[in-house]
Amino acid sequence: MGSVSQDLRHVDVLIVGGGPVGLITAYQLAKFGGVSVAIIEKHPKSAQDQYGRAITLYPRSSEMLDQLDLADELAQECFACRSTVSYDPNGKEVSGRGWHFMENMTDTYWGFALVLRQKYQEEIFRRKLREYGVGLETPVELTDIAIDESVALGEHRITAKLKDRTTGIESVIKCRYLVGADGGRSFVRRALDIPFDGSTTEDKWVRIDGIVETDMPKTRCYGAIESPTHGNVLWAALDRGATRIGFAFTAERQRAYKEFDEEAAVAEAIASLRPFNLKFKEVHWYTVYSVGQKVARHFFTKDCVFLVGDACHTHSSGAAQGMNTGIHDAVNLAWKLHFVLRGKAPRSLLQTYEMERLPNVQKLINYDKDISRLMTMQLPLGWTGNPKADPNEILGVVMKEASTFTSGLSIAFESNMLNVAGSLANASSPVIPGQRGPDVELQKPGTLEATRLHKQTPNKGTFYIVVFTGDPETTSSALKSLSAGISESKYFSNLQFPISWLTIPAKAGPSAYELLDTTPFGKVFYDQKQTAHARYGVNITEGGIVVLRPDGWWPARFKMFTNPRENDPTSFKLHLVNARLTEMAPALQQVFIDGSFQELAQELAGYLNIGPEIEPLLAENKKDEALKKLVMASTALNSAPEKEFTAAYNLLVYLVIQSPSVNMFLPRICDHLSKPITSSPVNGAGLALSVLTTVFNLIQPENEVRFNIFQAILRLIKSTGMWDTLKPQLGQLDKWIAEWDIDEEDQRKLFTQIADVAEDSGEEEGSYNYLLKALRTFDPKEAAEEISSPEAQDLSLKALKIALLSNTHYDFSDLTSLPTIQALSESHPVFFELLEIFSEKELEDYNDFRDENEEFFEESGLDNSKLHRKMRLLTMASLAASTNTRELEYKRIAKALQVPLEDVEMWVIDVIRAGLIEGKLSQKNQVFLVHRTTYRVFGEKQWREVATRLDQWKTSLRGVLDVVKHEREQAEIQKQREQQEADRKIAGAAGMGTGRRVGREKDMVEVGTD
User: Fold this and answer.
1) What homologous superfamily does CATH list for 412-558?
2) 3-class secondary structure, 124
3) 3-state secondary structure 653-665
4) Structural contact between residues 633 and 624, judged by C-beta atoms closer than 8 angstroms
5) Judging by DSSP bridges, how do beta strands 37-40 and 136-137 pair with one another?
6) What does the pLDDT look like over 470-509, one tens digit per residue?
7) CA distance 673 to 665
8) Alpha-carbon distance values, 872 to 196, 249, 841, 849, 868 (Å)
9) Where are the alpha helices (DSSP H) in 529-683?
10) Which has more pLDDT, 198 or 506?
11) Residue ranges of region Disordered (predicted)?
12) To 10 degrees, what angle do helices 118-130 and 20-32 make?
């Protein structure tokens, strides 16, 4: 047991894991300043693999690291890979396959694969981190996490127990936030019981690094060799003249080795490269690993713990995405966490980390599933094309299709509190809010030397407002109005929110001031070729304003002001709110533009053309009376210009929130927002949803009106099918319900409402899950008649139909355990009988039921063809579960599924895709080898089957033990013989000397020669 240190440290952020993702997260927090950080790693870096692991950074990762001042040092040591090659099984070069997409990574100055082994990357990251006074603590292990939820959010509610693995000394850190960057076996994820959804296949891959010699024509590039025995073999030129080779290690190849060691890795690498020859001069590293794809169900939990990198997603190395995806996580999270810790943003900003990263990770996983199968010469699951298609050709198509996503350049985020739907003036623009801000060439004033936008917008934890002036000759008046609006506003002079300005004219001049005829906004850079304006979709004659987030993504854009109405400062303020810069501030008085209640109310009244009605009420300090008139008149905002809609409504909400009678006004505002937004038929629902979300977030959690506003949000989403907007927020629903303290009936209404929203959006699984939640609110202990009420029966039948017809739902135990479902046996016995068949019976039983109840199918609207197919899949699962030999003959499967023998493989593959079984088909032996199966029910019969299998295993093991015992005995006898022989030889050798021993050991005598 280790000794205990009395030291107790307090830090703002504890980062667990000292790999690239953890180091980059810590580096940003330290670089941005004002935040205390500790980072620990349980493995001593001196003992870490010297060369292996990740090697490749794609363009978007390099761009992000460039804006963090990390990429230059990486580039100094890397192998910059711009070329690729693919060879067919005969060693002939083929085009357009494998890694060919890497030759076409455009729209970036980092248009190449930056190849540098992880060891060297980490050394650079650790050195840069130390420059800001933070060192990696190693080998220090996290042994326990405790979260005290009675401590206020944002305070030191996390207690982390640590252990130094060298000295055994234990210590404690208290922190506000904890970041789990501790890899695929994450202790943080497991300690907090965060599900890790997905699977690991039986496929194994090998990676080996070293210095090699080969007669392959092209070697210093990214290559693919289409091997008939080792899949699509990876060839990657590495830093320092080294090379990585990667290949599939099939079950057939595995059987050749009792132990997979360096010699085996080299032998397989040589075999994988045929018909080319290969020789290893040095082996730096090798590994063999299983391929799988898994995603954590939550990236942010308990309002204070984050997962990043492999801790929240793992996948194959097929597309070289592991470290790249982790870097995206780190860069997305760090500035948001810094803003919240420094009081520059509300805590709700942290929710956008999971909202933005999880969908993109899931997209990657979907690609990776296809790519990893194709690289092992298997067609993707669900493949509907030619069953004899060449996986190598399909791989080239898939990798080309995913190329911009793989490079990171097309990774985008949906509309949220950061990315403004409808802020784009020109819908045909080449870039829309939520996408990366492209890097473009600019010229410095005076010297006119070239620079880049990314170089002038480094990630230092600030937003950038970039004013594209267009041609100043046509935009001069708009620029002056913009300048006046900023000068007149106290907002920017008092703003704590970090903003930097840039001005980009579409031409050059000897003096920026003279060119613009006004004071520039921040630094000036010229766009002489007008390529920057074109890339950002800004009209030269109108100009435009672009907002860039600290991480380089583009949340909003709007036009310069081009008419008298838009020249007034109030309209400019509305534009700023619409750009969402102002929504980021933490305090209510900072959420919108500066000014007193009276000033802001008068401004809004002027905008609504009711200024004279409001003035006397404000003069008499009758705020609620003034608010009544503003709220009544706000229905006109539904026809306000799209770019002013959100800001004007948010200003109204800000004023209403300050009233002690807030609950009197909010229902009317919600009513207005539920009506059509006539000024924006396309984006209107999104605009209204944005305002309702703002209202919801601003109201105190325990306010009962929050429940009503959430229902208004649900009604709006239901009318628009925007389920994806709602889904990420539902993770907090249980917490909200507890805060609202609503009874079971209201909970049931809420769950049913959410189920309806999901159903209308085509999300049957989401609808089903919330129907189950609704059904669980019926308590048979309270009133037995409640479970058989019309409402309970209607919901039960709806859930049952979804479960029966679903292509993904095969486990019915969640239904059969519900009292309301059990009550169907009395009220709807035919439905209940069908449920019993799908729960535990087989195809023959279903066919009998169908023949006896033909009219039932027509009346109920159930699709017999769907049910029949599903019953076949379930029957196959039962068949696999009941076999004792783990082998199923094709003939037996064909009989049970009532299909022709030639269709057996197709049906087995469908059952595997459904996740009901795992195994392998043997065409040669006409059997299916069962590796894993799903038990549909687990009762006495299944226990007997398990007992039978255990008895068989026991018998087999007893036989093995007997063999082992016999071999041991033989070995012992042989050992004794060898010992006796050795003794005899020793005795003989001694007799040739001065004397010899005669007799038994206990009464030996020495016979001499003298």
Assistant:
1) Phenol hydroxylase, C-terminal dimerisation domain (3.40.30.20)
2) helix
3) HHHHHCCCCHHHH
4) no
5) parallel
6) 999 999 888 888 887 777 655 555 555 678 999 999 999 9
7) 13
8) 30, 34, 11, 14, 6
9) 531-535, 569-578, 588-591, 597-607, 611-619, 623-633, 642-657, 662-673
10) 506
11) 973-1010
12) 20
Task: Go through the chain and tell me how many residues it has.
Answer: 1010
Token pair listed for 522:
């921040």
DSSP string, 825-873: HHH-HHHHHHHHHHHH--HHHHHHHHHH-HHHHHHHT--HHHHHHHHHH
Query: Per the structure block, which two tokens stand in for 842?
Result: 């087989």
Half-sphere exposure of 726 (CA within 13 A, CB side): 27
Task: Please spell the DSSP secondary structure of 26-50, one letter per residue.
Answer: HHHHHHH-S--EEEE-SS-GGGS-S
Maximum CA pair distance of the chain? Answer: 141
What are the distances in angstroms from CA 105 to CA 413, 417, 684?
21, 31, 36
**pLDDT digit string, tens, across residues 74-125:** 999 999 999 999 999 999 999 888 888 888 888 899 999 999 999 999 999 9
* CA distances (Å), origin 788, targets 752, 772, 783, 785: 17, 16, 10, 5
Nearest to 321 by CA among 552, 96, 55, 66: 55
CB 165 within 8 A of CB 143: no
1000: phi then psi, degrees, rounded to nearest 5: -75, 165
Q: Which residues pair with 545 in a beta bridge?
A: 467, 558
**Arithmetic mean of pLDDT over the chain:** 84
Burial classification of residue 745, based on how many CB atoms lie within 10 Å of its CB (0-12 exposed, 13-18 middle, 19 or more buried)? exposed
SS3 816: helix
In Å, what is the CA distance from 476 to each residue of 392, 466, 543? 57, 16, 10
Contact residues for 849 (Cβ-Cβ < 8 A; gap 6+):
833, 834, 837
The bridge status of strand 140-147 relative to strand 56-57 is unpaired
CA distance 212 to 195: 42
| Helix, strand or coil, per DSSP, at residue 1007 | strand
Give the residue from 498, 35, 99 showing the smallest Cα distance to 319. 99
Q: What is the pLDDT of residues 931-942, one digit of tens each?
A: 888 776 655 555
Percent of the chain with pLDDT over 70: 87
Looking at 342-407, list the stretches that DSSP marks H as alpha helix, in order from N- to C-terminal side: 351-375, 391-401, 403-406
This prediction's pTM: 0.65
Helix (H) or strand (E) holding 995: strand 995-998
What is the rounded CA–CA span in Å between residue 229 and residue 89? Answer: 10
The closest alpha carbon to 830, from 854, 847, 853, belongs to: 853
Domain ranges of the chain: 412-558
Are the CB atoms for 250 and 376 separated by under 8 Å? yes
Q: What is the pLDDT of residue 429?
A: 58
DSSP 742: -
- The residue behind tokens 């993707």 is 380
pLDDT score, position 591: 34
Helix intervals (H) in 113-207: 118-130, 187-191
Q: Please determine, for residue 552, whether its predicted confidence score (pLDDT) is greater than 50.
A: yes
Mean pLDDT of the 677-683 span:
76
Q: What percent of the chain has pLDDT over 90?
A: 43
With cut-offs at 50, 70 and 90, classify the pLDDT of residue 25: very high
Q: Is the peptide bond before 139 cis (omega within 30 degrees of 0)?
A: yes
* Phi, psi of 144, deg, nearest 5: -165, 145
**Residues paired with residue 286 on neighbouring β-strands, in sequence order:** 208
Spatial separation of the C-alpha atoms in residues 386 and 101, rounded to whole Å: 24
Residue 470 Rama label (left phi>0; alpha psi -120 to 50; beta)? left
| CB of 847 closer than 8 Å to CB of 857 | no
